[in-house]
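Hi R.,

Here's the input for the 3-methyl-2-oxobutanoic acid complex you asked about:
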Amino acid sequence: MAAYIVEDSRKVTTHRLIEMKRQGKKIAMLTAYDYTMASIFDGAGLDVILVGDSASNVMAGNYTTLPITVDEMIYHARSVVRATNRALVVCDMPFGSYQVNATEGVTNAIRIMKETGCDAVKLEGGEEIIETIRAILAAGIPVCGHLGLTPQSINKFGTYAVRAKEQAEADKLLSDARLLQEAGCFAVVLEKIPAKLCAKVCSELSIPVIGIGAGQADGQVLVAQDMLGMTKGFSPKFLRRYADLGSVMTDAIGNYVADVKAGDFPNSSEEY
Ligand code: KIV
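And here is the predicted structure with 3-methyl-2-oxobutanoic acid in place:
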């Protein structure tokens, strides 16, 4: 018997997420980058599917999220949108697609919306990119913010350690979160920050705060391959593994290899 409950099978909208926060209903979000996974996730009752630029690491094997391109994000997001009926689909704007100026940001956001059919975009940063966020919103495109550990800035941070432990950085994060809400963002992701700071942002904002490594929030997001146990060598404290698909797949493939080599696959009932 499945443990999940879908109370409302209508398509999730940005408005409904804000309403969920108002009603104290938690929001469940995971990443997906392809059709097969997205169709399973959508059927399992996720509220939001994030086509994260973590596809750069998870799908392409890059060390950071920086190399992934707008074209590659469009390919992933289009595949996810095709599989999704209920969940809201948010596509990350990749590094370099919105940092130069507002015009480039809007042009790329429009491309992503037009060519994928996704519902919203996500950008990393606060005050530094607020003009671009305003311009994208003015074009009618819903925007999700992302503060705290923003992986596109890893070369500036120099480490994936917890952010905003110092007062000055915590103050800036809170003021950036307010700025994103005032600009019209429908949600903000807070990554790897102290739980107390996340709780403060949640209580100050009326838009949902989605946490990853940030303790309790209005919702949670994880990278699907991490929580499904498909990635090796990544086990931060915040990651709860819900399955060990890596072992299940290794066993299955090992059995297939053995069967093929033994001449046991296919057998007579598996041929025409
Ligand atoms: O790209 C991504 O997967 C993300 C999540 C970690 C929030 O931005």
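One thing worth noting: The pocket of 3-methyl-2-oxobutanoic acid is lined by residues 31, 50, 52-54, 92, 189, 191, 212, 221, 223 (CB under 6 Å).

Cheers,
M.
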